[in-house]
Predict the 3D structure of the following.
Amino acid sequence: MFALLLVTLFTLSLSSCKDGDEDEEVSPRSAFLTDGEWSGEGIYVVQGANSISVALLLQLAGEQELADQLDAIKDAKFNFEEDGTFTATANGIADSGKWKFTEDEQKIVITDADNDETTFTVKNLTANNLNLELNIEELGMEPVELQGNTINTLELRLVRP
């Protein structure tokens, strides 16, 4: 009886240790996301397999001021922390909030300081590239016609410096 009790306690202690280790394990996507600072590369219109810079489209449409505002993403810095928080800095203005993966890490939900949520589809996440796709209707906007193209999906591209 004593031997059976020892075996049972030993088995429970091993399974308890195993569960604790699994909780601390970080997925590869989380590790990539939280492993340092990201810099903005650009915002792109996605049409099938093709993409084009939104800033370039705006320049071609004669909207230089708006193109310059969107191109400022190249000066933005983003940090995602393991505790589910993030900071973003652009034009000397810092913002913070929370992030979480959903749908088997295929989507990321960003909650800003005002508790507004935006859901991005993770198109690419490697050690050096993070591409987040957003349907502009998620921002409460209608698709836009620009240079003969209907814009309803944007891709935010971030890179490691």
About this structure: Helices lie at 2-24, 28-34, 54-60, 64-71. Confidence is low (pLDDT under 50) at residues 1-22.
